[in-house]
């Protein structure tokens, strides 16, 4: 599905015949409505019998009471709308502080960050008055290449079902994605070209987390909660091959999922939530009894035409009043020995009946958050979202007046979200298709029955996220991830036009570009033709101080170091290039004695002063010499066009490529080798018609070897 407004229009047409939502439980008769109607009738009778002022009060009060009881505004009854307005007015809705402190201070002001010990090391825990939450990363955010992972089990399959007494557990799957092209770059040349390259099927950025929460309940101490959380996190880490987040990573994940830049302010409005420069709208969904949202629906939601989409799917066993365990029982290990099991065999039926997870079915909740630069830009995505939900009979409620709690429901906290329940909703047990209710029936990785048949198979969105550098021999996109929480060093041995193709595609992901070069005239035509948004490309000399723009998951930074042996350069622009002709006086001339002009430049620490999260430094080398081997060996990612035999020998020996090194000299024109420390991949650049017109032939020419 396309990640653009045009793609949304096409999808809207294809979903025109989708089934509508079935009967909604929120419209059924409620006890409070019956009582209010009876009270209005009694008030009218009293007024009629008493007369005078009582009659006037009855004439005014009875209709008002009936109107508040029976009239509906969108998905709320009138009295609920009035209550929501009062809560909205009374709630703290803005904070001028910065970053994750702002987010936590607003949505979870009493939350503190502690830790637990796991085999992989300390794991961060968000602790509040309602429980403890640990975060597990389901993919490697620092991975440079997209790697396929096994399908993910459903959250309700990850709930404990071993029959042991423990505090209530909630499992929350968090998915966030940025479509490619990115929202603000939806109509510029780079976006149109990238859409032609990928068909709108790739994501620019994606991440998946699993939040494990243990909630407080009567009879369980803080020590019990920590022990239960540690045990559950240890099991899921081993089963899913997930990685627990430490304190720094957990706080940064909170900021990344909020899409809050370091200086962002949070302000809640009635119809949206403003976080920095983004307007965000939240929805709450509940499946119909006996149903669950499908994996296909979650995948389609991540491709909605927005700047970013975040969703959470939460499964929780309903809180019950557990039998009060003795201190000895609480301190006993979770696993039981064979002798203990045999001794307690007579008590097994009673224990099984009372054990949570064996007879109870989990409750499901779906929260969705859409982000864009302006509220109007969200309307196509909202319309498509409603049609996708209707196709699965999923009732969605837009949380107007309640977007701050909705925002919290899409953050990695796994907190209870009772306010998000649609009007009239009751906390009832839902039978979830495929839920295993006995330990022997639990799904395991590789089990063909897992996940549930009604849910389908969910592939992590991280498998399809990154920068498309080309296609493999099967026509599938080859993705790299230069933009990640860690600074990325990339070395490209090839031609200038190949570097411009990679730069052009990175701009479609919303990246700003800073080019440090001694030959600005070679970059000026490309910069003028590609830089539709003002300030998206900046040219500067390597030795000139140029302030790098800020970087974030939505707007990463690509730094190009073009330091090859060149002739003296003409003026260099140290400010973003204007869209029109160059105006006199806008250029800053280089000093004539600059090192690097006319001969091989002195080694520079590639990107040393520009390093930071969500930044990548691409060093261009038109030829590889012995002096460049160290840089190639230290690079996180190596991009190679067809090499000369001596170049292939140097790189092959440095990287220990073995029999792969001779293949670097026999690549077809237009091919690119993508090498990191674990793998070698081959891709055809497959330039689009826009790239051919703007950049020209991207193959490595003879004078570039």
UniProtKB/TrEMBL annotation:
Renumbered residue ranges of the record's region Disordered: 318-345, 418-457
Entry superkingdom: Bacteria
Protein name: Type VII secretion protein EccE
């Amino acid at each position: 599905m396309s990640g653009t407004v045009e793609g949304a229009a096409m999808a809207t047409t294809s979903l025109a015949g989708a089934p509508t939502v079935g009967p909604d439980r929120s419209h059924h008769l409620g006890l409070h409505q019956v009582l209010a109607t009876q009270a209005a009738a009694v008030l009218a009778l009293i007024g009629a019998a008493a007369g005078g002022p009582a009659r006037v009060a009855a004439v005014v009060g009875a209709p008002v009471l009936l109107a508040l009881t029976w009239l509906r505004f969108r998905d709320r009854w009138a009295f609920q709308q009035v209550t929501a307005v009062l809560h909205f007015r009374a709630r703290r809705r803005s904070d001028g502080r910065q970053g994750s402190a702002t987010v936590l201070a607003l949505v979870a002001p009493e939350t503190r960050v502690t830790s637990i010990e796991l085999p992989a090391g300390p794991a961060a825990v968000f602790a509040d008055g309602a429980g403890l939450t640990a975060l597990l990363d389901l993919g490697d955010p620092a991975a440079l290449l997209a790697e396929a992972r096994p399908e993910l089990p459903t959250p309700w399959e990850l709930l404990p079902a071993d029959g042991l007494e423990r505090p209530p557990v909630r499992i929350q799957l968090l998915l966030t994605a940025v479509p490619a092209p990115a929202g603000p770059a939806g109509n510029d040349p780079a976006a149109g070209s990238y859409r032609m390259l990928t068909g709108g099927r790739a994501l620019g950025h994606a991440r998946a987390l699993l939040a494990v929460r243990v909630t407080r309940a009567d009879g369980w101490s803080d020590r019990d909660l920590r022990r239960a959380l540690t045990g559950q996190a240890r099991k899921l880490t081993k089963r899913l091959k997930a990685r627990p987040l430490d304190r720094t990573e957990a706080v940064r994940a909170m900021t990344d999922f909020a899409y809050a830049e370091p200086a962002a302010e949070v302000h809640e409005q009635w119809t949206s939530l403003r976080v920095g420069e983004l307007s965000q709208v939240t929805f709450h969904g509940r499946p119909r009894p006996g149903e669950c949202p499908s994996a296909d629906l979650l995948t389609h939601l991540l491709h909605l035409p927005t700047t970013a989409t975040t969703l959470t799917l939460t499964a929780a066993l309903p809180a019950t009043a557990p039998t009060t365990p003795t201190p000895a029982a609480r301190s006993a290990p979770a696993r039981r020995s064979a002798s203990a099991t045999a001794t307690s065999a007579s008590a097994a039926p009673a224990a099984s009946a009372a054990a949570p997870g064996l007879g109870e079915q989990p409750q499901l909740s779906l929260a969705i958050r859409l982000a864009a630069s302006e509220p109007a830009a969200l309307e196509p995505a909202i319309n498509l979202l409603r049609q996708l939900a209707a196709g699965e009979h999923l009732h969605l409620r837009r949380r107007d007046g309640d977007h701050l709690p909705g925002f919290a429901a899409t953050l990695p906290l796994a907190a209870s979200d009772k306010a998000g329940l649609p009007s009239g909703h009751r906390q009832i047990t839902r039978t979830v298709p495929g839920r295993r209710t006995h330990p022997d029936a639990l799904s395991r990785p590789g089990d063909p029955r897992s996940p549930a048949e009604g849910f389908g198979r969910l592939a992590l969105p991280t498998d399809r996220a990154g920068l498309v550098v080309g296609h493999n021999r099967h026509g599938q996109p080859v993705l790299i991830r230069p933009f990640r929480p860690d600074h990325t060093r990339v070395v490209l041995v090839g031609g200038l036009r190949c570097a411009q193709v990679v730069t052009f595609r990175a701009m479609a992901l919303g990246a700003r570009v800073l080019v440090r070069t001694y030959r600005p005239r070679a970059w000026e035509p490309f910069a003028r033709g590609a830089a539709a948004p003002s300030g998206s490309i900046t040219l500067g000399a390597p030795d000139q101080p140029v302030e790098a723009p800020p970087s974030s998951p939505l707007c990463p930074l690509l730094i190009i170091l073009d330091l090859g042996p060149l002739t003296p350069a003409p003026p260099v622009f140290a400010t973003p290039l204007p869209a029109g002709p160059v105006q006199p006086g806008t250029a800053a001339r280089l000093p004539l004695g600059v090192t690097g002009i006319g001969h091989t430049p002195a080694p520079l620490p590639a990107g040393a002063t520009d390093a930071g999260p969500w930044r990548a430094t691409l060093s261009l080398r038109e030829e590889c010499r012995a002096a460049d081997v160290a840089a190639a060996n230290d690079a996180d990612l190596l991009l190679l066009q067809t090499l000369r035999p001596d170049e292939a020998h140097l790189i092959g020996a440095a990287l220990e490529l073995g029999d792969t090194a001779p293949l670097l000299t026999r690549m077809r024109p237009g091919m690119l080798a993508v090498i990191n420390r674990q793998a070698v991949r081959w891709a055809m650049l497959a330039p689009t018609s826009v790239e051919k017109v703007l950049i020209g032939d991207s193959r490595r020419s003879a004078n570039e070897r």
